[in-house]
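User: Hey, my collaborator sent me this sequence without any context and asked if I could get a structure. I don't really work with proteins. Can you help?
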Amino acid sequence: MKKKEKHLFLITIFSLLFLCISCAPHKVDDDSLYNINEMLMPVWEGDTSYNESVLVVEEKDGSIKPINLLYKIDKILSIKSASLLISYEEGKDYLVENGSLIINTGGSIPRLTFNEFHPEDGFYRSYEGGALLVTEDGLFHNTQIVVTYTHSDPFNGFIPPHKGNLLPRFNKKIQNKEDINILFYGDSITTGSNSSGKWNINVSPFMPPFTDLLCKGIEEKYQCSVSQYNYSLGGQWTDWGIEHVRDVVESSPYNTYDLIFIAFGMNDGYSALETANKMNIIANKFLESYTNAEIVYVATMLPNPLSINAWMEQYKQGKALLKYEKEGMVVADVGRFHDSLLYTKRYQDMTGNNINHPNDYLARVYAQVLFQTITIEASVSNQNQITNGIIISIAVLLFVVINVTIFLVVNKKKKN
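Assistant: No problem. I've predicted the 3D structure and written it out in C-alpha cell form, which is a compact way to encode the shape of the chain:
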C-alpha cells in the first residue's frame, strides 16, 4: 500500500474509532469506594436503591424487629458498613422476609442495645420516655450499615419538581458550559456537619457534604466548572443571617454569584411564616450586592419527631417560603421530602446525630433535591445536547463515508 493510500486508510480507521468512543457511556473509576453517579441518582427514581442507610437497635429483650427500608426489598445486592469497608453475608448476618430486612442476632452486623439508644439522662427528652441518644462523635456513622437492593414498587411520596424555568440565567449558563459561582449561607447542616468527609467525623468513605455533592453533580452533568463559597456556621438562625450579609460580601472571593442558597430554619424559634420572611430579607440584602444572582430558599430537613424539645415548625417552612417564589427565586423543599421518607424509614436510619443532622445518605438526598429543583426537566434541558450529539455523529459518519469513498476511488485507479 502506498503512502497516500495508507494515510487515507488510517484516517478512516481513526474516524471510526472516534465515532465509537464518542458514543460510549462514561465509566466511573472502579477503584473508588462509591460511584458518584449512583450517589447522586434520585432515591425516588429507578429500581435500585444504593447504599441506603440503616441503624440497627435491639429491643429490651435483645431481639431485633424486621426493618422496613424505603422500598420493599426484591433482592439485596450488598450490605456493608457505612464506611463501605466491611461486607456482610446473607444467611449468616441477615435475611429478607416479606420485603423487610431481618438482622440475625448472632451475626456480625453492628447494633446498639436498647439501653444505649434510650438513655435515662440527657437534654433531649423523648416522647417514648427517657432521653434521646444524641452525639456528634461519629457513633451513628460507625454503627450504621448501608444496603443496596433492587425493588419493583414505585416511590409514592413527594417528588421535588423541576423549577429551572424560574432560574433562567443559571440554566442558560450551564447549558452553555460557562463557569458558575455558588454561595451557600446557612447553619451547621450547610457546613456539612456529620458527613463522613467532614473534619469532625473524617472517616471512610469520606463522603463530602451535600454542598460539594451538588457542585460535583452540576459539573458532571453539564461539563462546566463550579466554584463555591460557603459562609455557614453551626447553631445559627435567620437573625444571625440578616446581620452577617455584609460580612459575606466583604469576605467573598468572588465579585458575583449565579446562585445563592439560603438554608436556615433548624435553629429558629419562630413561626414558619416569620422564618420565611427573614430568609427573604436575607435574599434581598444579597441582591443589593449581587444583582444578577438567583436565589434558592432551602426548607430544612426535619428534627427528630420523637424529641420533646424540637421546634416542629420546620414541617411548615417549605409552604411558607412559597410566598416568595417567582422568577429568580425558588424553594427547594427538603423538609417535605424528608417527611415522605419518614413514612417508611425511621429517623435513626438517616441521621448523623439523632436530632437534627443528616448522615451521608440524607446528605445525598439534600443534593438530589436541590439538583432537581434548580434544573429544567431532563426532556427539555437535554434537548439541545441530544440535538448537538446527533449533528456531531452525522458529521463524523459523513467524514468516514467520504474517506472510504476516496480510498476506494484511489484503489480503483491504481488497479486500472
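In plain terms: Confidence is low (pLDDT under 50) at residues 3-31, 380-384. You can pass these C-alpha cells on to your collaborator as they are.
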